[in-house]
Amino acid sequence: METVEPLHQKTHQELLAMVAAQQLKLDEQSTKIETLQHQLAIALHARFGRKSEQVSNDGHVQLDLFDEAQILPSQVEAAKKDDEALTVASYQRSRKAGGRKPLPADLPRTQIIHDLPDTEKTCSCGCALTCIGEVKSEQLEIVPAVVTVIEHVRLKYACKTCELTIKTAPNPAQPIPKSVATPSLLAHIAVSKFDDHLPLYRLEEIFNRHGIELSRMTLSSWMIRCGELVQPLINLLHDEINAYDIAYADETPVQVLRQKGMSPTKKNYMWLFTGGPPEKRCCLYHYEPSRASHVPAKLLDSFEGYLHCDAYKGYLPLFVTRPILGVGCWAHVRRKFIDITKTVKTRGLAHEAVERIAQLYQLEKSIKEKELDENACYQHRQEHAAPLLDVFHRWLEENSRRVPPQSPIGKAITYALNQWRYLLNYLKDGRLEIDNNRSERGIKPFVIGRKNWLFMGNYQGAKAAANLFSLIESAKANGFNPFDYLKHVFEKLPSCKTLEDFEALMPFKK
Q1: Terminal CA-to-CA distance of the chain, rounded, Å?
Q2: Among candidates 344, 343, 359, 300, which has minimal Cα distance to 324?
């Protein structure tokens, strides 16, 4: 049997080594506990707290209204001074002027005249009252959707002499031949499903209230057919994105129930690529069962220039093998530090990092307010943002050696340092943006819809959804009403023959 040496017989050096080993173990456990507590706090905040990452002009994170424990004394004093400044004698000035916005002037109006009865049109002095004006007030009236039937009557002609010739007027081209669906109905279903995020079973119930029986199977098959119909326009959107030298990319998971050779629980992805010049904004959604690097390589097959994206490693091969320069996202860096400030009440490194990043965003805000062109924007960033970035980089490197690498603040600092080469690239062109929020805003409609309809039925449905999302979001990006645009597309597409015909239907054509 192995004998254990009594503690009093151990040498001083051995005892010191034991203490150091125990201390190291305690430090590791302490870091693990801190990390787990941070993860729990973030999960609780994501479930019950505010989602906003808004930062004030002075760099402080905007706190909850009743989160008094996190308010610094200086902020309390500043708030008191603001309140005092707004008080004048016994009159309290409101911070923001209220009032209801006027109803749109282009809406049709029906006037209802309210007049006094004849018995009240006489003054107490006996004279008749004279109308001297009117007082108007407006209310908003809504008329439920009106469903009508269009009858196509095709006249037939025949020769009564020889009785050999019979001619019938041709049937007009339809988006879905031999279907009861008109372009306006298809546009209504597509916008309701992919912009208003209504699952098809709810649309089925809505049609039933109008006495119309349209099963969700029928609605689903129509959307798949529409997705196939607009494929030429999707190809043109793809070409526009590849032809311009600035693009944005993002991706999000989606569940597809029935795919050959795949489990229903497998995680699939909806990719988004946004690009084109400002007057030709294009949003291209693309469904793939994979998140591998071959997807962006395929979609950006001829793209050359700057690609805004997050830190996902699937984009990295593009920056090595292709003439593509990755532009990092400062919003992702800021989010790492803001997540810490949401769970740590005492001011620390995370708060300081947020304030430093807020200075960069304040510069971007001033650029927008001054409406600087791309050359002036480039010069402004070189003069003001570049020095701040140099100081911030030194701050990150210094503190990376002071904090445990596996702690939340250590991971946030490491993330920023690993991405630094890409985070600096927005300085290289005045047209570039400081973050990838454009594509994150673009992917958000799909994420909102996913919360309602939960999953895609099959590959064809996911492909059709990607195509219709692309047209709807591209139309919105160019200032068009998505219903009006899709109705116009479904009316014209069946008769398109040439490339010019399809190009005339692009979502940026006036």
Answers
A1: 91
A2: 300
Per the listing, tokens 């309140």 go with 83
User: Residue 99: pLDDT band by 50, 70, 90 thresholds?
Assistant: low
Residue 272 forms beta bridges with which residues? Answer: 250, 285
Rounded to an integer, what distance in angstroms lies between the CA atom of residue 207 and that of residue 186?
13
pLDDT at 264: 81
Contact 309, 329 (CB under 8 A): yes
Rounded CA gap, 361 and 215, in Å?
50
Tell me how far apart the alpha carbons of residues 456 and 443 are, in angstroms, rounded to a whole number: 16
Torsions phi, psi for 143 (to 5 deg)? -105, 125
CA distance linking residue 84 with residue 92, whole number of Å: 10
Q: Longest C-alpha distance within the chain, in Å? A: 129
Q: How far apart are CA 114 and CA 183, in angstroms?
A: 42
Q: Return the number of other C-beta atoms located less than 10 Å from residue 205's C-beta.
A: 12
The SS3 assignment for 443 reads helix
Given a contact cutoff of 8 angstroms between Cβ atoms, the answer to whether 252 and 446 are in contact is yes
Measured CA distances, 222 to 197, 199, 227, 235, 463 (Å): 17, 14, 9, 21, 13
Strand ranges, E, within 46-169:
87-88, 91-92, 156-158, 166-168
User: Which positions ≥6 away from 103 have C-beta within 8 Å?
Assistant: 138, 140
Identity at 175, one-letter amino acid code = P
- The per-residue pLDDT for 263 is 83
Burial of 413 (0-12, 13-18, 19+ CB in 10 A): buried
Task: Tell me how far apart the alpha carbons of residues 453 and 449 are, in angstroms, rounded to a whole number.
Answer: 6
Token pair for 285: 């959604």
pLDDT of residue 28: 74
Could you tell me which residues come within 8 angstroms of residue 422 by beta carbon, excluding any fewer than 6 positions away? 311, 326, 327, 328
pLDDT value of position 126: 84
